[in-house]
Amino acid sequence: MDAMRAESVSKSFGMVRAVIDLNLTVGSGEIVGLLGPNGSGKSTTMKVMMGILRPDSGKVSVYDVDVLKRPVDARRMIGHVPETPYIYEYLTAAEYLDFVGVAYGIKPEDRKQRVEELLQALQMGEHVNEVMSGFSQGMKQKVAITAALLHRPKALILDESLNGLDPRSARIVKELLHRLAREGVAILFSTHVLEIAEAMCDRVMIMNEGSALAEGSVQELRSLAGLPGSSLEEIFLKLTGSEDTEQIVEALRL
Amino acid sequence: MRPSIVVSLSSVLFKSYLRAGRTGNVDTWTQPTIILFADLLALVAPIVLLQYALQSIPNAFTYILAPMVQQVFVGLPILLTAAVMMAGIMFELGQSAGLSSSEAVNWLPISPREYVMASAASICTAYSPLLAVSVGVTLPLALKFDLMYAWPLSVALSILAFLQGALIVEILRAGMNRVSSTVYRRRGRFGVISRLALITFIFVAIQLAFNPYILYYALDAIASSADYAWFVPMVWPSVAMVDQIRFGILPAALFSALSVAFASLMFDLASRLRAMYWSPTPMNIMIKSSADYVPAAETRSKFGLSPLEAAIALKELRSLVRRKDMARFIAVPIMMVIPFILPTVFSSAESSGGSPGFFLMAFVPFAVTLMLSTIAVGQEGKAVVNVYMLPIPAAEFIKGKLLLTWIISGISTVGIVAVSEIVTPIGIEDIAAVMVACAFVILAGGFFGLGIGARHPDFTLGSRSRYVTLEGFIMGLFIGGAMTLAIFVPVALHLLSPLRFGILTMLPITAVIGSSLTYIAYRYCEKGVVDFLANFRA
Q1: N or C end of chain B: which has fewer CB within 10 A?
Q2: How far apart are CA B239 and CA B247, in angstroms?
Q3: How far apart are alpha carbons B405 and B437 in whole angstroms?
Q4: Could you tell me the end-to-end alpha-carbon distance of chain B, in angstroms, rounded to an integer?
């Protein structure tokens, strides 16, 4: 069963075509990586999947719930970590997670257990009653990840969610995502760190200038690019037409 | 100190003042040269107007007016210091705390003295039209009242006083984050409340400081007491002016020199403080002493509010009381009332009549509701993404967002109605009628304001954040004003018209107009919020 599905989705901002006729599916228990250079349309795709950006055309559904018609119902099933963790910095972590918990309708006793588990795992337990304006980028990211996982979502949309995390926390999050996938959670995941994508994703979609260039497992992409035995980085650079990096560095003459 | 660095940095800081909160292309209005035109206008306009106006004063009156003109010359330096200080503090308070720690100068090779001088210069440049006006006002006065011998010193001391004010702002800026953070960390909730009270007090003090009634009394007091307050350094420029006007060249020179020395001392102090607290680091602020998570928000409905509505309202309250840049919105209702109350205080109750009180009773619910509801969406800033991510239905968003607006507007309205009833009594029956009209204004105005805020949000956080676009603000002001007028007209016809239309006829008309406008405003708000929640815009 497709947990998340985008069919022929297009989205433009004025003259800029951010996403062009995109088809994307994420199955239940599957981790799909969305890769692409800056401005390739990954974040826009994720926002459309969340129902927070209305596409110009196409259909989006999460567990058969039409995201465009019933965005609130769709969001109840989704956990999202945005690219930059914009949280309410004037709240304490506890107050923020309370707010998120109420929005998802989580009972106080469940909330307490869940928050304590997640924050302890991410080494944030001591900071729960601190106002978040003093938090580092990584600490804010940990709170955002906790908020996204608080309601045991059936689908996760993670936009560069490992940014700013210390190695231990990044490892914990990666293992947690694998476990959630084994439990049937559908995960759409974007990253610029290709090693992470290679290690984590069942399937990868490479985007460039709003379109899907290629899609499949890393092995399938190697065949597609005609680069057997190569790394995902080499495949990515070849497919996105940016393999001439050495010449660029040479030209800088630093 | 490297002058080129000071000039360059001062230009950068001034541009950031000028362009704060603006996005898009740089146009003529956001170029530093615009200040030169503003200065020129501020200098020439009073010269032309006063030159023309003073010609029409008969000579007999010149003798009567001469002491008042001397008061202006004496009081001007200290008023300019106060003006630039207040303006600088207002700017600082409007800036979100996060910005100051990310200033690029924190890691560029710039010395504290260079920074302080550049920053003070940029403050002086930003408010230089004030100085230009004072020069433009004093020149024709000096010509008319034979004070040209004192005018050059007046200009010089005004510039010095202006710089003094800017340096004091620098001292406050360096100290403010440190003190604020320390209080915040040590005292938890008490720190939050005391900071809010302090900021509100500053805003109200600023409003009082620039009220014409207060200014008049202050000018009089300064001029008459400058002689006796010679030991207060901030008064030295005024003391020098008193001596100069009395042809006391030596004491005038002495106090002028002392003023320069005091400004140098301020510069040194500001530089030392800047060196000590160079890069304000964000503090970890504990609201509770324990590190335990205790769920506070309920998941059961209470007082007719769903848990989500209550959670949104609580979040709004925390935003209002904890954010430095939001504190001014608490002070605004108080600041709005002062200009209306003061004339009543300074004049007799009989002469003020019932109209100002009635106007105030209509104005406060309109203005407070509109202000708080239109900013409700934009003040979320970039964190508005949370509203999109979470499953928040439009109806609960509206109620949660407006609850605090309605409560604050309600309290402000009841307060002003009570004050008006004490100052200019209109009777319990009429007060009840006014309260009905106010309730409709608050209800309809809240829906309408949130509708505007959802359609025209400005998510830019920083200096002089507006939280609503200029277009939205103007629309809100005019349409909201028209709605208030429509709701209040029947009550006004009863209270103010010589025909005294009966309350039993007028009140139902108010109820019909109010209900209709509330319904229309709700639909407008609902559509705006639904569209807003479906299209991420931050």
Answers
A1: N
A2: 12
A3: 17
A4: 42
Contacts with B292 from chain A: Cβ below 8 Å: 128-129
Nearest CA in chain B to A69: B534
Question: Token pair of B332, please?
Answer: 């605004």
Q: Which of B184, B288, B533 sits opposite A129 (nearest CB)?
A: B288
List chain A residues with CB under 8 Å of B322: 90, 131
pTM of the model: 0.72
CA distance B194 to chain A (A): 16
Which residue on chain A is closest to B384 by alpha carbon?
A: A86
CA B338 and chain centroid, separation: 13
B180-208 pLDDT per residue, tens: 555 555 555 666 676 677 767 766 665 56
Q: How far apart are CA B54 and CA B42, in angstroms?
A: 18
**ipTM value for the complex:** 0.77
DSSP characters over B235-259:
GHHHHHHHHHHTT-HHHHHHHHHHH
Q: What is the pLDDT of residues A146-197, one digit of tens each?
A: 999 999 999 999 998 887 888 888 888 889 999 999 999 999 999 888 888 8
Distance CA B38, CA B250 (A): 36
Contact B534 A87 (CB under 8 A): no
Interval B483-532: pLDDT, tens: 999 999 998 888 877 777 788 888 899 999 999 999 999 999 999 999 99
In the chain, the amino acid numbered A203 is R
- Whether B315 and A82 lie within 8 Å, measured CB to CB: no
CA A198, A200, A206, A208 dihedral sign is negative
Interface test with B, best of A13, A45, A52, A62 (most B CBs within 10 A): A52
**Partner-chain contact A115 B293, CB within 8 Å:** yes
Q: Domains of chain A (ranges plus CATH)?
A: 2-252 (3.40.50.300)
Buried b (16+ CB within 10 A) or exposed e, A78-116: bbbbbeebbbbbbbbbbbbbbbbbbbbebebebbbebbe
